[in-house]
Protein backbone atom coordinates (compact mmCIF):
# COMPACT_ATOMS: atom_id res chain seq x y z
CA UNK A 1 0.00 0.00 0.00
CA UNK A 2 1.26 3.52 -0.75
CA UNK A 3 2.21 5.94 2.00
CA UNK A 4 -0.46 8.16 3.46
CA UNK A 5 -0.38 11.61 1.91
CA UNK A 6 -0.15 13.16 5.36
CA UNK A 7 0.47 11.79 8.78
CA UNK A 8 0.41 14.15 11.74
CA UNK A 9 1.51 12.84 15.10
CA UNK A 10 1.12 14.84 18.32
CA UNK A 11 1.18 18.13 16.43
CA UNK A 12 1.24 21.04 18.88
CA UNK A 13 1.55 24.80 18.65
CA UNK A 14 1.53 27.49 21.31
CA UNK A 15 1.33 31.22 20.81
CA UNK A 16 2.44 33.82 23.31
CA UNK A 17 0.30 36.89 23.65
CA UNK A 18 0.97 39.58 26.23
CA UNK A 19 3.02 37.22 28.38
CA UNK A 20 0.30 34.58 28.27
CA UNK A 21 0.77 31.25 26.51
CA UNK A 22 -2.17 30.01 24.43
CA UNK A 23 -2.10 26.33 23.55
CA UNK A 24 -3.83 26.33 20.18
CA UNK A 25 -2.97 22.80 19.03
CA UNK A 26 -2.40 20.30 21.83
CA UNK A 27 -1.60 17.03 20.14
CA UNK A 28 -3.31 16.63 16.79
CA UNK A 29 -3.16 13.19 15.16
CA UNK A 30 -4.42 12.80 11.60
CA UNK A 31 -3.74 10.49 8.67
CA UNK A 32 -5.01 11.24 5.18
CA UNK A 33 -4.88 8.53 2.53
CA UNK A 34 -4.33 9.12 -1.20
CA UNK A 35 -7.51 10.42 -2.81
CA UNK A 36 -9.23 11.15 0.48
CA UNK A 37 -11.01 14.48 0.92
CA UNK A 38 -11.27 15.60 4.54
CA UNK A 39 -13.27 18.48 6.00
CA UNK A 40 -11.71 20.30 8.94
CA UNK A 41 -14.39 21.90 11.07
CA UNK A 42 -14.10 23.90 14.27
CA UNK A 43 -15.29 27.18 15.73
CA UNK A 44 -13.56 30.44 14.94
CA UNK A 45 -10.21 30.55 16.71
CA UNK A 46 -10.01 26.78 17.20
CA UNK A 47 -6.81 26.54 15.18
CA UNK A 48 -7.91 25.42 11.69
CA UNK A 49 -5.69 27.90 9.85
CA UNK A 50 -2.83 27.19 12.24
CA UNK A 51 -3.13 23.50 11.43
CA UNK A 52 -3.18 24.13 7.67
CA UNK A 53 -0.09 26.30 7.99
CA UNK A 54 1.69 23.45 9.74
CA UNK A 55 0.74 20.90 7.10
CA UNK A 56 1.62 23.41 4.39
CA UNK A 57 5.11 23.77 5.89
CA UNK A 58 4.57 27.50 5.85
CA UNK A 59 5.56 28.25 9.42
CA UNK A 60 7.81 26.89 12.09
CA UNK A 61 7.19 26.77 15.81
CA UNK A 62 5.37 23.43 15.83
CA UNK A 63 6.23 20.35 17.81
CA UNK A 64 5.30 16.82 16.86
CA UNK A 65 5.75 15.08 13.55
CA UNK A 66 4.53 16.04 10.08
CA UNK A 67 5.00 13.41 7.38
CA UNK A 68 4.23 14.31 3.79
CA UNK A 69 4.08 11.41 1.34
CA UNK A 70 6.35 9.35 3.58
CA UNK A 71 8.93 12.10 4.19
CA UNK A 72 9.44 13.49 7.68
CA UNK A 73 8.98 17.19 6.97
CA UNK A 74 9.54 18.16 10.59
CA UNK A 75 13.25 17.45 10.08
CA UNK A 76 13.56 19.20 6.71
CA UNK A 77 15.48 22.48 6.30
CA UNK A 78 13.97 25.51 4.57
CA UNK A 79 15.10 24.52 1.07
CA UNK A 80 13.82 20.96 1.50
CA UNK A 81 10.50 22.28 2.79
CA UNK A 82 10.13 24.46 -0.29
CA UNK A 83 10.76 21.45 -2.53
CA UNK A 84 8.33 19.28 -0.57
CA UNK A 85 5.72 22.03 -0.84
CA UNK A 86 6.17 22.54 -4.58
CA UNK A 87 6.13 18.85 -5.35
CA UNK A 88 3.24 17.80 -3.14
CA UNK A 89 0.94 20.65 -2.20
CA UNK A 90 -1.55 23.07 -3.69
CA UNK A 91 -3.16 25.91 -1.74
CA UNK A 92 -6.51 27.69 -1.98
CA UNK A 93 -7.38 30.48 0.44
CA UNK A 94 -10.52 32.44 1.22
CA UNK A 95 -9.16 35.35 -0.80
CA UNK A 96 -7.67 34.43 -4.12
CA UNK A 97 -4.09 35.79 -3.70
CA UNK A 98 -3.63 35.79 -7.46
CA UNK A 99 -0.80 37.86 -8.93
CA UNK A 100 -2.57 41.09 -9.93
CA UNK A 101 -0.37 41.94 -12.92
CA UNK A 102 -0.71 38.57 -14.60
CA UNK A 103 -3.59 37.12 -16.60
CA UNK A 104 -5.71 34.22 -15.38
CA UNK A 105 -3.80 31.89 -17.68
CA UNK A 106 -0.38 33.17 -16.51
CA UNK A 107 -1.40 32.70 -12.88
CA UNK A 108 -2.00 29.02 -13.62
CA UNK A 109 1.12 28.63 -15.78
CA UNK A 110 3.61 30.10 -13.30
CA UNK A 111 3.56 27.41 -10.58
CA UNK A 112 4.14 24.82 -13.29
CA UNK A 113 7.21 26.65 -14.62
CA UNK A 114 8.60 26.69 -11.07
CA UNK A 115 8.40 22.91 -11.12
CA UNK A 116 10.24 22.69 -14.45
CA UNK A 117 7.26 22.02 -16.75
CA UNK A 118 7.79 23.39 -20.28
CA UNK A 119 5.89 26.52 -21.19
CA UNK A 120 3.88 24.76 -23.90
CA UNK A 121 2.82 21.92 -21.58
CA UNK A 122 1.98 24.44 -18.86
CA UNK A 123 -0.23 26.36 -21.29
CA UNK A 124 -2.08 23.21 -22.29
CA UNK A 125 -2.69 22.32 -18.64
CA UNK A 126 -3.79 25.88 -17.74
CA UNK A 127 -6.29 25.94 -20.60
CA UNK A 128 -7.58 22.49 -19.73
CA UNK A 129 -8.22 23.49 -16.10
CA UNK A 130 -9.61 26.94 -16.81
CA UNK A 131 -11.81 25.43 -19.52
CA UNK A 132 -13.14 22.82 -17.09
CA UNK A 133 -13.98 25.66 -14.71
CA UNK A 134 -15.90 27.53 -17.40
CA UNK A 135 -13.25 30.21 -17.91
CA UNK A 136 -12.11 29.48 -21.47
CA UNK A 137 -13.26 33.00 -22.39
CA UNK A 138 -11.37 34.64 -19.51
CA UNK A 139 -7.80 33.45 -20.12
CA UNK A 140 -6.32 36.89 -20.77
CA UNK A 141 -8.24 38.74 -18.06
CA UNK A 142 -6.40 40.00 -15.02
CA UNK A 143 -7.77 39.18 -11.55
CA UNK A 144 -9.25 42.68 -11.15
CA UNK A 145 -11.26 42.13 -14.35
CA UNK A 146 -12.87 38.96 -12.99
CA UNK A 147 -15.84 38.40 -10.68
CA UNK A 148 -15.28 36.97 -7.19
CA UNK A 149 -16.41 33.52 -8.32
CA UNK A 150 -14.15 33.67 -11.38
CA UNK A 151 -11.19 34.75 -9.24
CA UNK A 152 -11.70 31.79 -6.92
CA UNK A 153 -11.96 29.46 -9.91
CA UNK A 154 -8.59 30.71 -11.16
CA UNK A 155 -7.20 30.16 -7.65
CA UNK A 156 -8.54 26.58 -7.77
CA UNK A 157 -6.94 26.02 -11.19
CA UNK A 158 -3.63 27.38 -9.89
CA UNK A 159 -3.74 25.08 -6.84
CA UNK A 160 -4.44 22.02 -9.01
CA UNK A 161 -2.08 22.88 -11.87
CA UNK A 162 0.75 20.61 -10.71
CA UNK A 163 -1.61 17.75 -9.73
CA UNK A 164 -0.57 18.01 -6.08
CA UNK A 165 -0.91 14.97 -3.86
CA UNK A 166 -2.69 17.19 -1.34
CA UNK A 167 -4.71 20.36 -1.71
CA UNK A 168 -4.91 22.53 1.40
CA UNK A 169 -7.93 24.81 1.32
CA UNK A 170 -8.79 27.41 3.95
CA UNK A 171 -12.42 28.50 3.57
CA UNK A 172 -12.00 28.29 -0.21
CA UNK A 173 -15.48 29.66 -0.93
CA UNK A 174 -15.94 31.66 2.26
CA UNK A 175 -15.85 34.94 0.39
CA UNK A 176 -18.62 34.05 -2.09
CA UNK A 177 -22.40 34.21 -1.95
CA UNK A 178 -24.10 30.91 -1.17
CA UNK A 179 -25.12 30.00 -4.71
CA UNK A 180 -21.70 30.79 -6.19
CA UNK A 181 -19.95 29.10 -3.26
CA UNK A 182 -21.92 25.90 -3.87
CA UNK A 183 -21.11 25.90 -7.58
CA UNK A 184 -17.40 26.67 -7.18
CA UNK A 185 -17.10 24.11 -4.39
CA UNK A 186 -18.75 21.41 -6.50
CA UNK A 187 -16.35 22.18 -9.36
CA UNK A 188 -13.41 22.13 -6.95
CA UNK A 189 -14.43 18.74 -5.53
CA UNK A 190 -15.05 17.31 -9.00
CA UNK A 191 -11.58 18.31 -10.20
CA UNK A 192 -9.82 17.13 -7.02
CA UNK A 193 -11.60 13.76 -7.23
CA UNK A 194 -11.04 13.50 -10.97
CA UNK A 195 -7.28 13.81 -10.66
CA UNK A 196 -7.05 11.61 -7.55
CA UNK A 197 -5.62 14.31 -5.26
CA UNK A 198 -6.36 14.39 -1.54
CA UNK A 199 -7.63 17.52 0.17
CA UNK A 200 -7.87 19.00 3.64
CA UNK A 201 -10.49 21.73 3.64
CA UNK A 202 -11.05 24.06 6.60
CA UNK A 203 -14.59 25.36 6.67
CA UNK A 204 -17.36 26.60 8.96
CA UNK A 205 -19.92 25.26 6.55
CA UNK A 206 -21.48 21.93 7.65
CA UNK A 207 -23.28 21.62 4.32
CA UNK A 208 -20.01 21.71 2.37
CA UNK A 209 -18.37 19.44 4.94
CA UNK A 210 -21.05 16.79 4.38
CA UNK A 211 -19.99 16.52 0.73
CA UNK A 212 -16.48 15.41 1.64
CA UNK A 213 -15.32 11.87 2.45
CA UNK A 214 -14.66 12.44 6.14
CA UNK A 215 -15.17 15.19 8.70
CA UNK A 216 -12.75 15.94 11.54
CA UNK A 217 -13.37 18.60 14.17
CA UNK A 218 -10.94 20.68 16.18
CA UNK A 219 -11.97 21.05 19.76
CA UNK A 220 -9.76 22.30 22.56
CA UNK A 221 -6.64 21.75 20.51
CA UNK A 222 -7.36 18.19 19.46
CA UNK A 223 -9.30 16.45 16.71
CA UNK A 224 -12.53 14.72 17.66
N1 LIG B 1 0.78 34.58 14.92
C1 LIG B 1 -0.04 34.45 15.98
N2 LIG B 1 0.27 35.03 17.18
C2 LIG B 1 -0.54 34.88 18.25
N3 LIG B 1 -1.69 34.18 18.24
C3 LIG B 1 -2.05 33.59 17.08
C4 LIG B 1 -1.25 33.71 15.89
N4 LIG B 1 -1.88 33.00 14.91
C5 LIG B 1 -3.00 32.51 15.44
N5 LIG B 1 -3.11 32.85 16.75
C6 LIG B 1 -4.19 32.48 17.67
O1 LIG B 1 -4.42 31.10 17.54
C7 LIG B 1 -5.82 30.80 17.62
C8 LIG B 1 -6.23 29.99 16.41
O2 LIG B 1 -6.21 30.79 15.24
P1 LIG B 1 -6.59 30.20 13.82
O3 LIG B 1 -6.52 31.32 12.84
O4 LIG B 1 -5.77 29.01 13.54
O5 LIG B 1 -8.11 29.75 14.05
P2 LIG B 1 -9.22 29.31 12.98
O6 LIG B 1 -9.88 28.10 13.55
O7 LIG B 1 -8.62 29.19 11.62
O8 LIG B 1 -10.22 30.54 13.05
P3 LIG B 1 -11.19 31.16 11.93
O9 LIG B 1 -12.23 30.12 11.67
O10 LIG B 1 -11.74 32.37 12.61
O11 LIG B 1 -10.35 31.48 10.72
C9 LIG B 1 -6.52 32.15 17.76
O12 LIG B 1 -6.81 32.34 19.13
C10 LIG B 1 -5.50 33.13 17.28
O13 LIG B 1 -5.65 34.36 17.91
UniProtKB/TrEMBL annotation:
InterPro entries given in the database record: AAA+_ATPase, ABC_transporter-like_ATP-bd, ABC_transporter-like_CS, ABC_transpr_LolD-like, MacB-like_ATP-bd, P-loop_NTPase
GO BP, sorted A to Z: lipoprotein localization to outer membrane; protein localization to outer membrane
Domain of life: Bacteria
Organism: Aurantiacibacter xanthus
SUPFAM superfamilies (alphabetical): P-loop containing nucleoside triphosphate hydrolases
Domain ABC transporter: 6-224
Keyword Plastid: no
A GO molecular-function annotation: ATP binding
UniProt entry keywords in alphabetical sequence: ATP-binding, Cell inner membrane, Cell membrane, Membrane, Nucleotide-binding, Transport
Protein name (database record): ABC transporter ATP-binding protein
GO CC, alphabetical: membrane protein complex; plasma membrane
Family affiliation: Belongs to the ABC transporter superfamily. Macrolide exporter (TC 3.A.1.122) family.
Amino acid sequence: MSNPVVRLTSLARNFEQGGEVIEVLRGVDLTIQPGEIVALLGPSGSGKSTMLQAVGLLEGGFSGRIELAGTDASKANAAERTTLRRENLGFVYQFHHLLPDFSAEENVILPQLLLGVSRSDAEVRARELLGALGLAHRLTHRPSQLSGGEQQRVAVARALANKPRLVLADEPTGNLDEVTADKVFAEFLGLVRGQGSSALVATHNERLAARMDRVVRLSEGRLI
